[in-house]
């Protein structure tokens, strides 16, 4: 028996660094992703080979601590195995292969795609939200990064032709149709980064300290933010609070096909991530500035956690710019192949 599981990557149209404080995000699942083909066998080792790395992952089904496993990418597989086991699954060993059409470490969530496809291939059941939550815990365990739910939930809950308005506190997913006149292009800055060891953890800590002063950032208004005495924490909170507003407004702009307004919100989001949240880089700023001056581009911004990775541009249909044209796609799926 071969089980084939596929998970898309995702691009976030707007709403970065809002998920872990229970805010709003607006990603879409991509038409590129990761496939895991797995054959269960009477063994206690899950062995997977990836076309992205010559060293295979060989994970014992009773693995406890994923953080020391080599090669490093196998930690994500181990994280999934640990979380499946603690959710009560009886995991079989076996062998399999991983192929991907996603760039790794570029901000398109190859890590979530790997976790979700692996979890489904190893037998995870349940709703899109349940699988996403299990995989989020797996990523936290594997990488030590206290990531939010966006990446995994966008991968499991994707809807063809739609962006996903996700409320990360209520854990609801509201598909918003992408108007016909708009296309999404992802442009790689070429500056790749790993979230592991990045200032992501510091940013998250800043948000928690800001919330100690004014309460949950999700409930805060712009006026509350100005009460924070510390300049750095005030700017961090200002980004989160204003970004939540922009996401809600952007979903509305999509619904009413107000593409100019949608683009303007993306440009504002980039400025906020650059100046208040300080997660951009000179290369990303230069790329985004150039895109925002290009005819046919409604708006562009860095996407994902920042510190390198990709920019996303929303453009008038037919506009030619260098980059990867992406289409909003359905979420992860699994099937059994004969053989
Ligand atoms: P992103 O999720 O934006 O691509 P991350 O830094 O979160 O960036 O995750 C990238 C890491 O995930 C890679 O360095 C690698 O360890 C792992 N990874 C993702 N997809 C694969 C794959 N198909 N094969 C092997 N490792 C992968
Ligand atoms: Mg990732």
TrEMBL record:
Residue ranges of every copy of the GHMP kinase N-terminal domain listed in the record: 76-158
Highest taxon listed in the record's lineage: Bacteria
Any single biological process term in GO: galactose metabolic process
MF term (GO), any: ATP binding
Gene Ontology CC: one annotated term: cytosol
EC number assigned by the record: 2.7.1.6
Family annotation (Gene3D superfamilies): 3.30.230.10, GHMP kinase, C-terminal domain (3.30.70.890)
Keywords tagged on the record: ATP-binding, Carbohydrate metabolism, Galactose metabolism, Kinase, Magnesium, Metal-binding, Nucleotide-binding, Transferase
Major enzyme class: transferase
Any Pfam family matching the protein: GalKase_gal_bdg
Residues in GHMP kinase C-terminal domain copies: 251-318
Transferase in keyword set: yes
Keyword Magnesium among record annotations: yes
Segments forming domain Galactokinase N-terminal: 6-40
InterPro entries: Galactokinase, Galactokinase_CS, GalKase_N, GHMP_kinase_C_dom, GHMP_kinase_C_sf, GHMP_kinase_N_dom, GHMP_knse_ATP-bd_CS, Mevalonate/galactokinase
UniProt xrefs under PANTHER family: GALACTOKINASE-RELATED, MEVALONATE KINASE/GALACTOKINASE
Family according to the record: Belongs to the GHMP kinase family. GalK subfamily.
Name used for this protein in its record: Galactokinase
Provenance organism: Candidatus Aeolococcus gillhamiae
Protein's gene: galK
């Amino acid at each position: 028996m071969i089980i084939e599981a596929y998970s898309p990557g995702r691009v976030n149209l707007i709403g970065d660094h809002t998920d872990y404080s229970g805010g709003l995000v607006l990603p879409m699942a991509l038409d590129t992703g990761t496939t895991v083909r797995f054959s269960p066998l009477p063994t206690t080792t899950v062995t997977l080979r990836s076309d992205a790395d010559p060293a295979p992952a060989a994970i014992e089904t009773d693995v406890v601590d994923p953080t020391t496993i080599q090669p490093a990418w196998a930690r994500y597989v181990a994280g999934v195995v640990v979380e499946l086991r603690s959710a009560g699954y009886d995991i079989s060993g076996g062998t399999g292969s991983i192929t991907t059409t996603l760039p790794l470490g570029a901000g398109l969530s190859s890590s979530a795609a790997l976790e979700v496809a692996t979890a489904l291939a190893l037998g995870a059941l349940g709703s899109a939200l349940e699988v996403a939550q299990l995989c989020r815990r797996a990523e936290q365990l594997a990488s030590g990064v206290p990531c939010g739910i966006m990446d995994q939930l966008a991968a499991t809950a994707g809807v063809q032709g739609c962006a996903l308005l996700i409320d990360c506190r209520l854990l609801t997913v509201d598909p918003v149709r992408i108007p016909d006149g708009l296309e999404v292009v992802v442009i790689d800055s070429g500056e790749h980064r790993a979230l592991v060891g990045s200032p992501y953890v510091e940013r998250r800590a800043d948000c928690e300290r800001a919330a100690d002063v004014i309460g949950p950032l999700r409930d805060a208004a712009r006026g509350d933010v100005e009460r924070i005495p510390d300049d750095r924490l005030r700017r961090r909170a200002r980004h989160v609070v204003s970004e939540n507003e922009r996401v809600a407004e952007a979903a509305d702009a999509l619904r009413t096909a107000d593409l100019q307004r949608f683009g303007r919100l993306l440009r504002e989001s980039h400025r906020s991530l650059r100046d208040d949240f300080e997660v951009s880089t000179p290369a990303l700023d230069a790329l985004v500035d150039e895109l925002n001056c290009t005819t046919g581009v409604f708006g562009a911004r860095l996407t994902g956690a920042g510190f390198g990775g990709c920019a996303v541009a929303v453009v008038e249909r037919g506009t030619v710019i260098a980059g990867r044209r992406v289409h909003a796609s359905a979420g992860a799926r699994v099937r059994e192949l004969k053989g």
